[in-house]
Structure to design on (247 residues):
């Protein structure tokens, strides 16, 4: 019978595997989040992933790639071993802001750790990469007195295409796509959540810039306070309107 995490061959409070690895646990668990909002996931079998960057993600069998709940790095993980008369181990994941993701593991069904090595990163196709280059060179088309802070601004979950400052001095994260779809909005949402935890950058607004933006993506972006901008690639290349029109 599968055992509960934290019992027998493991020192109390110490997770198995190495934190330099990706660790995957399939477990019957309950999840509670306490922070700016509160959330509760009732007992069910889920996939828990601990990545080498320190992030912890809780997935279900549905919902595509998006986790049900997660904690972005930097954060700490403490595991409280079960009491003598209990089977549950409790994982407490806490970030620097004091927000906590508490995972109560009722039963561990599978556990493994894997070395993934260095990842070369996402390689954008030619048009998307060129759009980024052009928009970085002409960031003023997004608004009066806009300036570029950095291209490929690094974060713990990947680089933001452009980090800019608008005319009012507000930081803006710009995600560039050839075609703006829901996954692009979700990606930018995750960047914004992480960037807004940095007091040197916050508050950070978001812009989804693409040659085409799907209606569903536009609705989701507007609901999350993300501005949508449709780019004219030919105009940006200087082959159409010298004023670099945006439609």
């Amino acid at each position: 019978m599968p055992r509960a995490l934290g019992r027998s061959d493991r020192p109390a409070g110490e997770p198995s595997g190495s934190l330099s690895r990706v660790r995957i646990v399939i477990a019957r668990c309950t999840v509670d989040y306490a922070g700016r909002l509160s959330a509760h996931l009732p007992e069910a079998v889920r996939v828990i992933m601990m990545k080498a960057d320190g992030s912890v993600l809780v997935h279900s069998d549905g919902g595509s790639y998006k986790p049900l709940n997660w904690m972005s790095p930097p954060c700490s993980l403490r595991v409280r071993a079960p009491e003598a008369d209990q089977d549950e181990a409790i994982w407490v994941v806490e970030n620097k802001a004091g927000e906590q993701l508490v995972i109560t593991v009722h039963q561990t069904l599978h556990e493994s750790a894997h070395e993934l090595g260095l990842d070369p990163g996402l390689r954008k196709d030619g048009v998307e990469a060129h759009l980024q280059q052009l928009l970085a060179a002409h960031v003023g088309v997004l608004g009066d007195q806009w300036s570029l802070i950095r291209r490929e601004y690094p974060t713990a979950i990947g680089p933001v295409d452009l980090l800019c400052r608008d005319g009012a001095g507000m930081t803006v994260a710009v995600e560039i796509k050839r075609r703006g779809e829901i996954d692009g909005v979700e990606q930018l949402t995750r960047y914004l959540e992480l960037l807004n935890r940095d007091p040197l950058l916050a508050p950070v607004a978001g812009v989804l810039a693409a040659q085409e933006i799907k209606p569903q993506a536009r609705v989701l972006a507007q609901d999350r306070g993300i501005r949508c901008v449709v780019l004219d690639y030919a105009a940006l290349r200087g082959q159409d309107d010298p004023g670099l029109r945006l439609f």
